[in-house]
Specification:
Layout lengths: L4 E6 L6 H14 L4 E5 L5 H12 L4 H25 L3 E5 L2 H10 L4 H9 L7 E6 L2 H8 L8 H17 L6 E5 L4 H14 L14
Parallel strand pairs: 1-3, 1-4, 2-3, 4-5
The protein binds thymidine-5'-diphosphate.
Length: 209
C-alpha cells in the first residue's frame, strides 16, 4: 500500500477525537486529498456486538480482545487497505493503539497486543494522541452508567492514558494537549500533519499556531 496515507487519532474517552477527526478530514479534503474517515469499533457485525456489550454487560476480557481483533481485521480488509491502495488519506478515530490501551488496562500485555495487530494492520504514517487529564476527560463524558464505580472508572482510564503516553517515543507519534481549546487543537493537528510532510506546505504554514 505504497501510495496512501494513514493518520490515526487516539486518546481516552472525552478528549474530543470525533470532532477533530471530522475537522481533519474536511481540511485534508480542502488541501486536495481524497479522504476516507472511519472509526473503531466499526458499524460492522463485530463492532456492533462490542457497542451492544457496553450497554448490556461487558464481555469477558478474552472475548472482548478477540472481537476487537475481528472487527479490525474486517475494517482493514474492507476499508483501510483498499483506500490506501487507491492513494487516499485514511483518517481513523481509534485503531489498534486503543486495544493496547484499553485491553492492556484490562490485563493483556500491550506489546503482545501490538504484535498481534501489526501482523495484519498497517502501521500509521502519523499517530496523533489527544491527551487530557483523566479528571477533565471524565468530566466531559459524565458517568456512563457502568457498574464499575467512578473511582474504578478513573483508575482504568488513567492506566489507558499512561499506555497511550508511552507511545510518544514512537517516531510516528505526536502527543497533542487536549485542554487548549478546540480550535487550537485543530490547528496543532494540522501543523503535525504538515510537519510530517503529509500535505504540501509553505514555510509560513509551519509557524506555531
Ligand atoms: P468510542 O470511540 O468511545 O465509541 P463511541 O463513538 O460509541 O463513543 O469507543 C467505544 C469504547 O471502545 C471506548 O471506551 C474505547 C473502547 N475500545 C477498546 O476498548 N478497544 C479498542 O480496540 C477500541 C477501538 C475501542
Amino acid at each position: 500500500m505504497p501510495n496512501g496515507t494513514l493518520i490515526v487519532i487516539e486518546g481516552i474517552d472525552g478528549t474530543g477525537k470525533s470532532t477533530q477527526v471530522r475537522r481533519l478530514a474536511e481540511w485534508l479534503t480542502s488541501q486536495g486529498r481524497e479522504v476516507v474517515a472511519s472509526r473503531e469499533p466499526t458499524d460492522g457485525p463485530w463492532g456492533r456486538k462490542l457497542r451492544e456489550s457496553a450497554a448490556s454487560g461487558r464481555l469477558s476480557a478474552a472475548d472482548e480482545l478477540a472481537y476487537f481483533l475481528e472487527d479490525r481485521r474486517q475494517h482493514v480488509a474492507a476499508v483501510i487497505a483498499p483506500a490506501l491502495a487507491a492513494g487516499k488519506v485514511v483518517v481513523l478515530d481509534r485503531y489498534y493503539f486503543s486495544t493496547m490501551a484499553y485491553q492492556g488496562a484490562r490485563g493483556f500485555d500491550p506489546t503482545e497486543i501490538r504484535r498481534l495487530n501489526e501482523a495484519f494492520a498497517p502501521v500509521p504514517d502519523l499517530l496523533l494522541i489527544l491527551d487530557l487529564e483523566v479528571a477533565a476527560a471524565h468530566g466531559r463524558i459524565g458517568s456512563r452508567g457502568d457498574s464499575a464505580n467512578e473511582f474504578e472508572q478513573r483508575e482504568n482510564l488513567e492506566r489507558c492514558r499512561q499506555i497511550f503516553l508511552a507511545l510518544r517515543h514512537e517516531p510516528f507519534a505526536r502527543v497533542i494537549p487536549g485542554n487548549c481549546g478546540i480550535n487550537t487543537v485543530t490547528a496543532r493537528l494540522q501543523q503535525a500533519v504538515r510537519l510530517a510532510g503529509l500535505v504540501p506546505c509553505s514555510a509560513a504554514s509551519l509557524a506555531a499556531p
